[in-house]
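To assess whether ligand presence alters the predicted conformation, the chain was also submitted together with nicotinamide-adenine-dinucleotide. Input:
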Amino acid sequence: MAFKNFIDGQWLDSESGKTFENRNPARQGDLIGRFPASGPKDVDRAMAAAKKAFATWRLVPAPKRGEILYRAGELLKKYKEELARIETREMGKVLKETRGDVQEGIDCAFLNGGEGRRLFGETTPAELPNKFAMSVRGPVGVCALITPWNFPLAIPTWKLFPAILCGNTVILKPAEDTPQTAARFVEILSEAGVPPGVVNLVHGRGEEAGAALVRHPDVQLVSFTGSAAVGREIASWCGQNLKRVSLELGGKNAQIIMEDADLELAIEGALWGAFGTTGQRCTATSRLIVHRDVASKVTDALVARAEKIRIGEGLDESVEMGPLINQAARDKVARYVDIGKQEGARLLTGGAIYNEGACADGYFFQATIFDQVKPNMRIAQEEIFGPVLSVIEIASFEEAIAALNNTKYGLSSSIYTSDVTRAFRAMRDIEAGITYINGPTIGAEVHLPFGGVKDTGNGHREAGTTVYDIFTEWKAIYVDYSGKLQKAQIDNN
Ligand code: NAD
């Protein structure tokens, strides 16, 4: 099947006519479709449409824009199962998780729909008599939204719903591994009543379509989620050209298990955090920091359960862990397993490609656990983005926090303890954008800020109400009704 770009309400081929293939990572023989390999000319066309639409969309009252988002939420509910199946087929994670991914999009639509009646500014006393002072939010302009493949619907909704609620128009460049979910999503937005040109979709490779979009002089804001390497490149371009840029990048998240923890709960959390989405979440647990008094008990239980995880194509409801996204991702995971062994970590289970039966045609990898990992080893420092858990033993609470913070990233974190003092100290001292107490590192809710510290981003937070600081410009407004020239800081002194 041939898919197209969506520009100004029309489905269009790329100007060059070039396409790229999208295949099921669980079964390479399953060709999902061909998508336009877009370039600068397609971006130009999308930009012209987005600029034209901005002139009218910015004037639509925010509560009315919110009503359209509400309708989009209703339609996402209606098409939830269809979307989940499209996602699983093109990116591999199991159906339960892709249903969750769509649910996050639904939650995001309703949250933002409601916010259309708020989008609060401030009113404040003026320092001069007969003068009124307030601040209001306004749209930024045309926003470039560049998204990864691991949450093919949720991440686009996190960016797109607040962006258009605030009166911006957008050009979405989805990951080349998950273009079909994005295509269905913009189709649903059209059905919900989003006018032509407000949301434009340009498919293509990062270095071509993505780079052309970021570098377009009329883009006012780049909102990017993806790897730190690409984020850095985008940020440096945006820095030189004074463009707003919001980055959500990698993670090297850790879960701490103290000796006083409910071990059963902690083990369940670690398994879900490490192997959910085949470890391909930015918030995945890739380090487990365990108190030495309980370490062998924890690792024995983890290994026993990891070996029972059912691996296979996510469309099969009995499967618990799907494939990696592509060959390069699987090669990277295998490389890190070798690195771990060379560094002296002990491989407790897994560590190899999984190719039993029908899995031989996909990018499967076993659930893998290392122990005897030292905090400075590469497998404890670098983002692997696969089903590999590194267990680090510690002897005290202080050592646990130091090990957790010993990374350049700072997205999600977790501690299992029954000691309220330790819990509160962890909430204060952990360097991360998200901290869970007695819960795994994954499972963020859409009405709270999402993002991380250090190399995980550049200080912005998506979701919650903080996302509006990304997608709006503040304007301070003064109304002087004194009928005379009043001079601030001068007339009052
Ligand atoms: P990636 O950086 O390779 O690609 C992300 C997007 O950027 C894709 O759409 C890609 O086509 C595009 N792109 C690539 N090169 C580009 C360029 N030169 N210019 C413009 N666009 C370009 O990342 P990925 O492999 O798709 O995703 C995995 C990464 O994303 C991991 O590092 C993960 O931690 C991170 N991630 C972060 C969050 C978060 O919220 N912090 C969420 C999900 C994923």
